[in-house]
């Protein structure tokens, strides 16, 4: 098909998909008795492995990939869980026009030359990886073109070649064909799908760099959520998820959505993908690490087994995280580990020094990251200088605590039993997960000196403050925020705004850009405040907007639910009351009266029996446009 006409057809397809999506569903607050986040794919724990991008950009080849694979095995990192070997941008030669089949650049991947002059396959390479006990990953784009085709300083010899149509190597218009090829014929197990093909900025850059490309309708406008086509973006990624399920009905795949936190993906990605990028790219620069980390770190309620927040890949070994900056490198790794980020190494593993292998190889931190509970660490203390993150481990009373000094000066930090949700009177034992030393027991509090940019990480044993159950904010891996009540997506102002490395200071400033502000929060209100009900502050609870519904996986583990509920003292809407409702497997088991701003917290308790799914709904009394902030204080599942 002529490529212009083809562009039109894909625009129509997108429009149809949008109108299909737009049909109002059933009442989003009605109980479903189901877990509605993604359960497809192979991501019960965060994926681990290696990706070529941070190590090589587009300058990849077979020797580098296989050399890495061998190093993962010989260093023992593969045994520790680093099993995905993922090829990023740069592998493609062209899309064959006779049948649309993608062709591999065989001068850099010689084993891909399998047949006649036009025939290429990655099967020999994935066979080798599989024989080594590893898994294989590939990269594509949701539009027609890739990020590397948007130009910049990348090696032109790694760009796709040929006519405009031959250089359309992205998935748009070819979703099923490409996914079948990559997963059935070529044997890949993991795909990262980028979004430069549908991004206004990338398309503009591509046109500037010499043209010769068809444009795709802009689904992402980085600086404007209002001009971003969220339903179409979502529908496009959904079509990939469906194609993956057709190609691998047994669910043996990982789907990584790489839409850089744009298009409100932080809210819906968990319904479609296994790995959801929450920000633009990481670079080996401290401020940039803070930027991408922050985009995921306040969002534990949006990740759980099956779908993980992805602040981008590890940059350990480079720049401010290289062998001369081991404090920074260890911080970077500790932080990724405790927030359950995918652990994808981005280094030339053929030459990895021992000091770096020891970081990736910290078995205690890997085990924390891979803990089957899937509870992303929650902020127990927050400031721009120091943060304390606490992660619950499944099936034990132990927790992981990370004390992170973000700044340039040393700080004194008091770690409190209450940060850990441990009882004040009982002894607490900390084991340092870097030095492996066990510290003397203490009760109630202990002080630490934390060096600039250092992260202390401990496994903590103590007596849980709530002995007969678990607070919901301790177990975010059991929670799916099915509907967070956000009416108008807003950019999150709490993400560290580093200088944009691609623009420098050539603008009025770095702006807040990732929608998700006002989303559900563990131990904080939706807008980052303390949970407050008529002057009473709560360190524990869920802050969420009204007109919201959360699904909690109980799976028969607990028998009762309890909370104190009400409208937050810092609610934007102080006029409209709301009712709090609790359902067990779809059955209403408790509800509050309509609570208003300024009311005392109401006690809500319910018998949930052996329910599989508990649903927590807040329904605003009137149809007001501005949501109020609701508090599920001390919300807990009890035995
Ligand atoms: C985007 C992605 C990166 C990498 C490059 C490849 O920038 O966010 O992770 O895949 O494209 O060009």
TrEMBL record:
Enzyme class (EC, first level): hydrolase
Signal peptide residues on this chain, from the entry's feature table: 1-22
Keyword Cytoplasm: no
Entries under SUPFAM superfamilies matching the protein: (Trans)glycosidases (SSF51445), Galactose-binding domain-like (SSF49785), Glycosyl hydrolase domain (SSF51011)
Gene3D superfamilies the record matches: Aldolase class I, Golgi alpha-mannosidase II, NPCBM/NEW2 domain
UniProt-listed GO biological process terms: carbohydrate metabolic process
Keyword list, A-Z: Disulfide bond, Glycosidase, Hydrolase, Signal
Catalytic activity: Hydrolysis of terminal, non-reducing alpha-D-galactose residues in alpha-D-galactosides, including galactose oligosaccharides, galactomannans and galactolipids
Family membership noted in the UniProt record: Belongs to the glycosyl hydrolase 27 family.
Protein name: Alpha-galactosidase
